[in-house]
Amino acid sequence: MILNVTEHDDSILRTMKEYESARVPIHLKYTDQRSTHYMIVDYNQTLVATSTEPTMRETAYLWTDDNSLVGLLQKSFEGLWHSSVELKAIETEAVAEKLIHVLKDLRPTNHTIILYETPEAKYNVLFNYVKLGLENGEAVAYIGSEESPSQIRDAMKRFGIDVEKYEKTGALRVLECNDFYIIDGKFDAAITINLLNKMYDEALTKGFKGYRIAGEMACFFEHKLTKELVEYERAVHRVFDIPIIGVCAYNSNEVVEASNPMDLYNELLKAHGTVLFSGLSKKLGKIEIRKA
């Protein structure tokens, strides 16, 4: 089996151990190359997904036993197999390196959530995400909530981001929650979405390749606007109507302390395509990825 790096999680390892205990040999590798989903059986049959979307159970598949088509897929698989990495290489990979694989896999219209426990874990994900966008020629907006814009800028500089250079060219904007989400103590989803559209159009006009946003959502909890938050996430849902990339950052402690934590958690999962858990162990913690 060959899996994308972003599909890796502990449940796969548990399943493998169950099969190995029954003496069924499984050889697993990982790749960061984007590929369609397909299965080859006994070199003479294959199932091919009609979509490259990661949610396999919602995708239609085509079956064939045509020797030419099966042979083409077999050749493709063998080439990918030789360029893929072993399981142990992924398991021992540093958190930052594994995170880069995950963030590089994000594409325009993707709407992702990160749940974190410490500021270090939050910045580890969001700053890598910001840096990748800037280095790729995209414009980036960072909406702060738990720290002031000046504190965020200082943290970015320590992380290795040339804040002055990118702000001077208009590539980077560091805003407060009150400048974007909650204006004059009120939240209006239509106003925020209109701001997104305006920022995206301005970025393209200036010649940037695309646009991405990192938003800290703590201010909604601070202003007791949990209901409004859920309505906003529902409106944006798993993908944006405009081709930008979005990562919403949630402090897991605030989610747990909400009046209806399980309902809130489920709503957040349904509204995002990919869920990143950071800081579950140690200071930065391991990165865990789940597909919603």
Task: Write a brief caption for the model.
The chain is α/β, with parallel strands linked by helices. It has helices spanning 10-21, 67-83, 87-91, 95-104, 119-135, 149-159, 163-168, 177-180, 189-205, 218-222, 226-236, 252-256, 261-271; strands spanning 2-4, 29-31, 38-41, 45-49, 61-64, 85-86, 111-116, 139-144, 172-176, 182-183, 186-187, 211-216, 245-251, 274-278, 288-291. The strands form four sheets. The chain has a seven-stranded mixed beta sheet, sandwiched between helices. Strands 1-2-6 form a three-stranded mixed beta sheet. The protein has a three-stranded antiparallel beta sheet with strand order 3-4-5, covered by helices on one side.
Fold and architecture overview:
The chain has 292 residues and is of the alpha/beta class. The protein has 2 domains: 90 residues, Endonuclease Chain A (Endonuclease, Chain A); 197 residues, 3-Layer(aba) Sandwich (Rossmann fold), CATH 3.40.50.300. The strands form 4 sheets. The protein has a 7-stranded mixed beta sheet, with helices on both faces. It has a 3-stranded mixed beta sheet with strand order 1-2-6. Helix 1 links the parallel strand 1 and strand 2. The chain is globular, with a radius of gyration of 21 Å. The two termini are 22 Å apart. About 2% of the residues have low confidence.
